[in-house]
């Protein structure tokens, strides 16, 4: 108890001394110091806010088996290494494209995320959508027709997602595996997907006031759906993950990052 | 010999394959393994069969690596588990996230393989002496045991223990050292587990390998019992306590040819507003941390020895450096399993889920400022969301439109056990479809239960949709076929086929059901199950699926495509039946019936269910 009393007394003495010292400083210096402190904090916060709005995240999405993981490693390392299997988790990386390593000057890094395409892992896409600045939707041009419906449904879900509509996130429809002879052309794929999405529109945006599964509807009422009706930009490109033909994808990404 | 050994990341990049054994694998076993086993939360299982191959795997959860070994199914290589674990150890030492090629691992692998093979040879030699005795006894015991069981002998307990010990021997032969210890632990635990295990084996729930034999034996016995009475009276469906005399058969068909006796009141078309299928599900987003406080008092109840453990775990949770061990995970997983079981999840399913979560967390580093229980909870939540998220699209509207384009009706068959609500929910689905401007037709293929046809007729009149009926005591498969032809003729978009309720063990009824499905090739086989069901859900679904696959005639086997969960409003938060059903069958829940009026049909809200399960 006595120790406590002694400590209390000493603390009081020190605080009194501190206050006296403070009062000795001319008021001008004090105000200047506080003002400088406030200014720096305000500047730091504003810088952070400004930087945050410009995200550099690009999502690679698409059905399982369309070639997203191979494309990811092509963009990052310039080779697909020893091949890939069905992904169970997303692959993330922040880097400059492999082909841009030789370029000089300050190139902005791209935060590329390869989201697994398996239907059970669909919720993972929802996690990354809020921070996306652009989306690359990869489609298998070789085995297109059997998967056309599933791919269109996935694309429809992305295009009607609240984040995508509100922020007008641009989407690239990338037709992968074009190095093979029997791969379809991008025009064919684009037309087929527009037709499928038109059918989806008819069946999904139905009588009810609340749309069953989707946040928004797309396209213009009464007209056949076309990608130009979307409020965000949808472009089509070709690529081949295996041989490393990814120029169109890189150009698309660089347009927005 | 080993066909292939792969090492790949969880993100999908292959890091190393064995180049010595350069055999190309037939089909895509690795992809199938990932899709149908690892992503289905069955990673706790021992092995996976694909075509002529068997696959075994192990995880390194900390680095996010998966090691898979593929070998021929007919060979029973003993050293695979051993090899996988030492490969895991040595590879993780040389693993570097930046490196993509590991050619120098070839040498190491060759040495390890030679060592593992040598060890296996030695073990085989020491077991050679004991093996001949065990082998003969094993076969004889199992078949004898099964016959004893189905005839209800009194030596049950003794037999059960012997089954388990034989099972143990089986396991020893198949699997190397590691698994044996876990089997021993199982015996040492409470006696209830032993009997449950034996019961499950005799029922053949898992239905793989030797257990399939057990199930076919059991079902043969069942059918042989029913055969003799069936031969005597072919018309009547005779149960074991057959009271009805043969002469009364003709009088049992009370269908009135002229419809009702003039009591037809003009029923106004039922219009009760919007079906709940189309309403947005609004659920309150409670804070996620509300259950963290619940964990604390529970852990404090344990004896004082835990106090030291608690303090060190708190310390570890702050520093976050500990690698999760099986022993660390066990108490948390056990508590989680208990919690799941109180929410009416079948015991077997809860067990499997916990094993799968354990497999995915073992060896992982704890993130800082997290407790073990919250890590386990997070992993379990992920696993549950993954299971309940449908594997394929459940957009019926789209399928109906696709069938419409092909100018044929979309046929849905409702199957299930007695009294789950097939007819009621059929009417609800018809109401919902009608609201979306789809023309529906009902087919009354329940020709057994008195009043079934009248029930559907009443619904049809209220909804003002056509109904195809042929009265009672007719062959349901033929009635369904004619109904579909009628629908094609009058241009109905959808045909909803109501069938009689049947127990999954009833062989002749299940055969009749597969005949109906084989003959008519419906677009959707909907299993109707009630949310009140407990552990029986596992049995019902697995037996239904098994019978449908066993008795299918054409190459294209139709299994259960979707689940309709009924009586959802009667359970408050004991929603576990949904999880059991989805896990065991792999089919998504397409509708949820939550009341007895036409509008009480809604979709399954995955996040809400997972939250309720883990509350």
From TrEMBL, chain A:
InterPro entries attached to this UniProt entry: P-loop_NTPase (IPR027417), Small_GTPase_ARF (IPR024156), SRP_receptor_beta_su (IPR019009)
Transmembrane segments: 30-50
MF-aspect GO terms: GTP binding
Keyword Oxidoreductase carried by entry: no
SUPFAM superfamilies noted in UniProt: P-loop containing nucleoside triphosphate hydrolases
Cellular component GO terms held in the UniProt record: Golgi apparatus; signal recognition particle receptor complex
Swiss-Prot/TrEMBL keywords: Endoplasmic reticulum, ER-Golgi transport, Golgi apparatus, GTP-binding, Lipoprotein, Membrane, Myristate, Nucleotide-binding, Protein transport, Receptor, Transmembrane, Transmembrane helix, Transport
Localization in the cell: Endoplasmic reticulum membrane; Golgi apparatus
GO biological process: protein targeting to ER; protein transport; vesicle-mediated transport
UniProt signal peptide: none
Its membrane topology: Single-pass membrane protein
Entry annotated with the keyword Nucleotide-binding: yes
Family: Belongs to the small GTPase superfamily. Arf family.
Identification of the protein by name: Signal recognition particle receptor subunit beta
UniProtKB/TrEMBL annotation, chain B:
Ranges of compositional bias, category Basic residues: 201-211
Residues covered by region (Disordered): 123-187, 201-307
Biased composition (Basic and acidic residues): 143-160
Keywords annotated in UniProt: Endoplasmic reticulum, GTP-binding, Membrane, Nucleotide-binding, Receptor
Molecular functions (GO terms): GTP binding; GTPase activity; signal recognition particle binding
Sequence ranges assigned to domain SRP54-type proteins GTP-binding in this UniProt record: 588-601
Compositionally biased tracts (Acidic residues): 287-298
PROSITE patterns: SRP54
Biological processes, Gene Ontology terms: intracellular protein transport; SRP-dependent cotranslational protein targeting to membrane
Pfam families xref list: SRP-alpha_N, SRP54, SRP54_N
InterPro entries: AAA+_ATPase (IPR003593), Longin-like_dom_sf (IPR011012), P-loop_NTPase (IPR027417), Sig_recog_particle_rcpt_asu_N (IPR007222), Signal_recog_particl_SRP54_hlx (IPR013822), SRP/SRP_N (IPR036225), SRP54_GTPase_dom (IPR000897), SRP54_N_sf (IPR042101)
A GO CC term attached to the entry: signal recognition particle receptor complex
Localization per record: Endoplasmic reticulum membrane
Membrane disposition: Peripheral membrane protein
Main location as per UniProt: endoplasmic reticulum
Domain of life of the organism encoding this protein: Eukaryota
Similarity remark: Belongs to the GTP-binding SRP family.
Protein name: SRP54-type proteins GTP-binding domain-containing protein
């Amino acid at each position: 108890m006595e120790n406590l009393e002694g400590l209390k007394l000493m603390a009081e003495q020190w605080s009194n001394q501190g206050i006296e010292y403070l009062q000795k400083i001319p008021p001008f210096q004090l105000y200047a110091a506080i003002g400088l402190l406030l200014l720096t904090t305000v500047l730091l916060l504003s810088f952070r806010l400004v930087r945050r709005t410009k995200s550099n995240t690009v999502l690679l999405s698409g059905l399982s088996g369309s070639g997203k993981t191979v494309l990811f490693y092509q963009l990052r390392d310039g080779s697909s290494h020893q091949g890939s299997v069905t992904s169970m988790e997303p692959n993330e990386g922040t880097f400059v494209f492999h082909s841009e390593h030789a370029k000089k000057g300050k190139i902005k890094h791209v935060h590329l995320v390869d989201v697994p395409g398996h239907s059970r892992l669909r919720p993972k896409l929802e996690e990354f959508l809020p921070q996306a600045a652009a989306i690359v939707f990869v489609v298998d041009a070789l085995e297109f027709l059997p998967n056309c419906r599933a791919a269109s449904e996935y694309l429809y879900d992305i295009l009607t997602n609240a984040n995508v509509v509100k922020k007008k996130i641009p989407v690239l429809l990338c037709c992968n595996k074009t190095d093979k002879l029997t791969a379809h052309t991008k025009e064919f794929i684009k037309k087929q997907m527009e037709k499928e999405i038109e059918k989806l529109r008819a069946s999904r945006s139905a009588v009810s006031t609340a749309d069953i599964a989707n946040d928004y509807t797309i396209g213009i009422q009464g007209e056949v759906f076309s990608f130009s009706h979307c409020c965000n930009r949808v472009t089509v490109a070709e690529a081949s993950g295996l041989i490393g033909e990814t120029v169109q994808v890189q150009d698309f990404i660089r347009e927005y990052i | 010999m080993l066909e292939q050994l792969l090492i790949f990341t969880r993100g999908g990049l292959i890091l190393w394959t064995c180049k010595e054994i350069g055999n190309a694998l037939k089909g895509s076993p690795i992809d199938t393994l990932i899709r149908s086993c690892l992503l289905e939360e069955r990673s706790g299982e021992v092995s996976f069969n694909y075509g002529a191959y068997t696959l075994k795997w192990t995880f390194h959860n900390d680095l996010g690596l998966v090691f898979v070994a593929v070998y021929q199914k007919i060979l029973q290589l003993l050293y695979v588990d051993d090899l996988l674990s030492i490969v895991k150890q040595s590879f993780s030492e040389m693993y570097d996230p930046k490196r993509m090629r590991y050619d120098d691992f070839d040498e190491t692998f060759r040495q390890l393989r030679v060592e593992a093979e040598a060890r296996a040879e030695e073990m085989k030699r020491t077991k050679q002496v004991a093996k001949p005795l065990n082998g003969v006894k094993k076969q004889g015991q199992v078949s004898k045991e099964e016959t004893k069981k189905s005839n209800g002998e009194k030596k049950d307990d003794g037999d059960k223990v012997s089954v388990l010990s034989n099972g143990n021997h089986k396991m020893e032969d198949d699997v190397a050292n590691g698994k044996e210890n876990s089997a021993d632990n199982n015996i040492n635990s409470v006696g209830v587990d032993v009997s449950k295990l034996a019961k499950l084996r005799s029922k053949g729930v898992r239905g793989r390998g030797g257990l399939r034999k057990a199930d076919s034996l059991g079902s043969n016995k069942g059918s042989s019992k029913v055969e003799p009475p069936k031969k005597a009276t072919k018309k009547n469906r005779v149960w074991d306590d057959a009271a009805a005399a043969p002469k009364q058969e003709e009088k049992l068909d009370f269908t009135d040819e002229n419809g009702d006796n003039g009591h037809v009141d003009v029923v106004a078309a039922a219009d009760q507003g919007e079906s709940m299928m189309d309403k947005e599900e609004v659920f309150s987003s409670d804070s996620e941390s509300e259950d963290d406080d619940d964990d604390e008092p529970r852990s404090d109840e344990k004896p004082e020895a835990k106090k030291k453990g608690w303090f060190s775990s708190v310390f570890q949770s702050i520093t976050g450096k500990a690698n999760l061990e099986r022993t660390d995970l066990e108490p948390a997983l056990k508590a989680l399993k208990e919690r799941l079981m109180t929410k009416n999840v079948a015991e077997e399913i809860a067990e499997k889920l916990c094993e799968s979560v354990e497999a995915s967390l073992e060896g992982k580093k704890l993130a800082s400022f997290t407790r073990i229980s919250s890590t386990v909870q997070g992993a379990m939540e992920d696993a549950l969301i993954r299971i309940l998220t449908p594997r394929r699209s459940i957009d019926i509207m789209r399928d109906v439109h696709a069938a419409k384009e092909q100018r044929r009706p979309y046929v849905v068959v409702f199957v299930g056990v007695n009294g789950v609500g097939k007819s009621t929910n059929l009417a609800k689905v018809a109401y919902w479809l009608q609201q979306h401007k789809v023309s529906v037709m009902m087919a009354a293929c329940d020709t057994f239960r008195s009043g079934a046809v009248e029930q559907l007729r009443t619904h049809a009149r209220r909804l003002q949709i056509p109904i195809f009926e042929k009265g009672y005591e007719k062959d349901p498969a033929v009635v369904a076929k004619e109904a579909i032809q009628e629908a094609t003729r009058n241009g109905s978009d959808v045909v909803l086929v109501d069938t009689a309720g049947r127990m999954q063990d009833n062989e002749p009824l299940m055969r009749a059901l597969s005949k109906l499905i084989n003959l008519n090739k419906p677009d959707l086989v909907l299993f109707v199950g009630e949310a009140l069901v407990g552990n029986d859900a596992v049995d019902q679904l697995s037996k239904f699926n098994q019978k449908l696959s066993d008795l299918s005639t054409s190459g294209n086997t139709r299994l259960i495509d979707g689940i309709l969960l009924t009586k959802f409003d009667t359970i408050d938060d004991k929603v576990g039946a949904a999880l059991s059903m989805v896990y065991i069958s792999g089919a998504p829940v397409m509708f949820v019936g939550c009341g007895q009026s036409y509008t009480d049909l809604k979709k399954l809200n995955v996040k809400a269910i997972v939250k309720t399960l883990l509350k």
